[in-house]
Amino acid sequence: MELYDYTIYGLRNFYRTYKSSKYQQELYFYLLYITISLTVLLPNLLLVVVLLRKIKKGDTRPLDKLLLNICISSSLWGIFGHLVFAHLYYFRWNIGVAFCKVYYTVLVGFDIAFQFHMFAISIDRVLQATNPYRYLQRVNNFGSSLLLYIPCAGIIPTFWFIDRDIRNAITKQINEMVLKITRGSEKSETQKTIPIDFSDN
């Protein structure tokens, strides 16, 4: 199957180009992805370092945990979404369709976790603005910890059961591997059981 048959993933397929054509246009897209990735990644990593230093000193609030998690999600989204995924997808298609789909699913999962944490921080700010005196009783460390763990723990299993294409593609590859192993073992057993005729003709 040709490369442009996979029309869902990637700008290369959208423009129906081959690996040897329009290389300058693809280089521009690749440089754009690197720029966006560094723009997302570097500030978030800096904020992660600052928040970890606050946690080490013991001067933390529930909001700090939410900010730490959203920074980690944003950093992972930047790494997986642009630098690694763009390089592998545009210049090394031999990793396989199933792996690309899994990689794309993880990217979407990080994006959903980012949006979830933005929503949690918005609720946190509304609670503090409307009733600041009871804010610490309502938003405690346990509640913020739940907001940290739920999206991170549920991203990949949720998409594994939702996206049937990913499950079917991986299942197909596993079945092909099992079939090759089974055929190889059957062939070896057949060679062992072939009777040898020593009679003279």
From TrEMBL:
Transmembrane segments: 27-54, 66-90, 102-121, 142-162
Keywords: Cell membrane, G-protein coupled receptor, Membrane, Receptor, Transducer, Transmembrane, Transmembrane helix
Gene3D superfamilies cross-referenced by the UniProt entry: Rhodopsin 7-helix transmembrane proteins (1.20.1070.10)
GO MF terms held by the record: G protein-coupled receptor activity
InterPro entries noted in UniProt: GPCR_Rhodpsn (IPR000276), GPCR_Rhodpsn_7TM (IPR017452), TAAR (IPR050569)
SUPFAM superfamilies xrefs: Family A G protein-coupled receptor-like
UniProt key word DNA-binding: no
Record-level GO cellular component terms: plasma membrane
Membrane-related topology note: Multi-pass membrane protein
Subcellular compartments: Cell membrane
All residue ranges annotated as the G-protein coupled receptors family 1 profile domain in the record: 43-135
Superkingdom assignment: Eukaryota
Protein name: Dopamine receptor 3-like
Organismal lineage: Eukaryota, Metazoa, Spiralia, Lophotrochozoa, Mollusca
